[in-house]
From TrEMBL:
<keyword id="KW-0067">ATP-binding</keyword>
<dbReference type="InterPro" id="IPR050107">
    <property type="entry name" value="ABC_carbohydrate_import_ATPase"/>
</dbReference>
<dbReference type="InterPro" id="IPR027417">
    <property type="entry name" value="P-loop_NTPase"/>
</dbReference>
<dbReference type="InterPro" id="IPR017871">
    <property type="entry name" value="ABC_transporter-like_CS"/>
</dbReference>
<dbReference type="Pfam" id="PF00005">
    <property type="entry name" value="ABC_tran"/>
</dbReference>
<dbReference type="InterPro" id="IPR003593">
    <property type="entry name" value="AAA+_ATPase"/>
</dbReference>
<protein>
    <submittedName>
        <fullName>Sugar ABC transporter ATP-binding protein</fullName>
    </submittedName>
</protein>
<dbReference type="GO" id="GO:0016887">
    <property type="term" value="F:ATP hydrolysis activity"/>
</dbReference>
<dbReference type="InterPro" id="IPR003439">
    <property type="entry name" value="ABC_transporter-like_ATP-bd"/>
</dbReference>
<dbReference type="GO" id="GO:0005524">
    <property type="term" value="F:ATP binding"/>
</dbReference>
<keyword id="KW-0547">Nucleotide-binding</keyword>
<feature type="domain" description="ABC transporter">
    <location>
        <begin position="14"/>
        <end position="251"/>
    </location>
</feature>
Amino acid sequence: MSNDVAKHEKTPLLSIRGLTKSFGQIKAVDNVSLDVFPGEVVGLIGDNGAGKSTFLSLLSGYNKKDRGDFYYKGEKVSFSSPRTSRRNLKIEMVYQNLSLAPDLAVWQNAFLGEEVRRFGVFLNAPKMIEKTARVLKTLNSKVRPTDQVGALSGGEQQLVAISRALLFSRDLIIMDEPTAAISVSKIADVLKLIKDLKADGKSIILVSHRLEDILTVADRIVVFAHGKIRDILVNQNLSIEDLVRVMFQDRSVKKGES
Ligand SMILES: Nc1ncnc2c1ncn2[C@@H]1O[C@H](COP(=O)(O)OP(=O)(O)OP(=O)(O)O)[C@@H](O)[C@H]1O
């Protein structure tokens, strides 16, 4: 069911239809259609250069699509900027490089660009610190709102990025390689967090090269190849070998032919 849409009883949170983006001659994302349902974790995998990051950048509004339509809760929408994605559509993006400001405190990062103000002018620091503390507690984190982000571990920084999704009650959280920069001992924490977010009804799109992480948390696994969806797999009784086989099937075919 390549480039297909799963049969589902619920209305999709996000429907993507015919999404296309080229860079010069390269079709980075080529006519991709996908539904993401409420409370679902969608794993996105594929070889280097398959188009995963470009696909995410179109959802978050960082790159402009050439073609295609988005429907959010059944209504046609545009993803014109990261701000629109966040504010209007309640989509939060947690990046590979995190895009946090290392010199600022945890609470300042958590509210970056969406500061709480008194009378619309003065920053309401106590309120933001208190809200950040509450979210960090929910995440079972020892990090304090006043800690400087640059002094935190990779895993803790990941938590700060994710805390934004909780602070602003995002519906969809897009994660690009959330376990790439953190120690093995912390990976289980991030995966548990993803499961908790799902249990809380959030939808998650997760890109990862760590196939074992994808198998641990994903409900469905979307395999990208050459800018297209090669396959969508329901995560039942799948092994890493199964995923590798689908990801690299063109290579094995070529090998067999030569
Ligand atoms: N800004 C850009 N300018 C030109 N080409 C780009 C740009 N961004 C991506 N590409 C090209 O688009 C294709 C898809 O790249 P993309 O980064 O989306 O793949 P990916 O699946 O995320 O790869 P990786 O797993 O290595 O991060 C590649 O051929 C890449 O070289």
